[in-house]
Amino acid sequence: MKKVIYISGGVGGAKFAKGLNKIEDIDLTILVNTGDDENIHGVFLSPDIDTVIYNLAGIEGEFGWGINNDKFTVNNELRKYYDMDFKIGDTDLATNLYRSQMISQGKTLTEITKNIKNKFALNCEIIPMSDDRVSTKLITKNNKKLDFQDYFVEKKGKPRIKNIIYEGSRSAKVNSNTIKKIKSSDIVIIGPSNPLLSVGPILSLSKLKKELISHKNVTIISPFIGNDAIKGPSKRNFEDIGFSPDIKGIKKYYKNIGNKYIVHFGDSDGKINTVEENILFKKIKDSESLARKILNYE
Question: CB neighbours (10 Å) of residue 297?
């Protein structure tokens, strides 16, 4: 049975995870970004972890996050006290209340994530990149320092940035079991998530990055089609930090990590390690088809 490590952010990464998880004859571990984690409305949120879990459970909301047909009774009551754009559905809130309670009792994020995953009877493993806090901060062109959720939700990802800081990454520890899983894996796949905001926090953990560099089979799926982002502000982010939103920029960013790169039809640089496939996942069968192809590459 092939051992697969899949590195994922939120919505973009979760779409491919759905197809990958359809393949039964693999041992799948999904390593998820936690740089977006935040205390909001008095509860501790792990948005990317929940997005991956909800997508695999088939209950994700219309836009890929949250829970489908969720009610917002609590959110609407809170709006009577203060203005906010960040919305947590009532059912989603229960997950975050549970996480907050378990953290207060001394449980690790890894333990909590396993319990939440088991609630939805998911067969793969889902693990956070670290049990320690790493927070993505964005420095704008006018030198304002923004929390991730402030930048992404409140300001809709519009401010231009000049730097990204992954606070806490130098001291954050990586679970030894995570390192063992990467070492023993047959393939590592990095999903079509925002390289800077979703994968960057994971790469900021030196132990993890070292293992990825030393791995001999790392496949990276581009988050760009025709020099534009599949979803979100990744194009602007990439350009702001000095990378081109194409395979050239992807290879520069993932230098020494990627062995094979997957791009959309027409986006190849003509190199032997670049493969053109459909990376626009309109249906789950699209991501499942790509997953099977990646796992069958020599």
Answer: 12
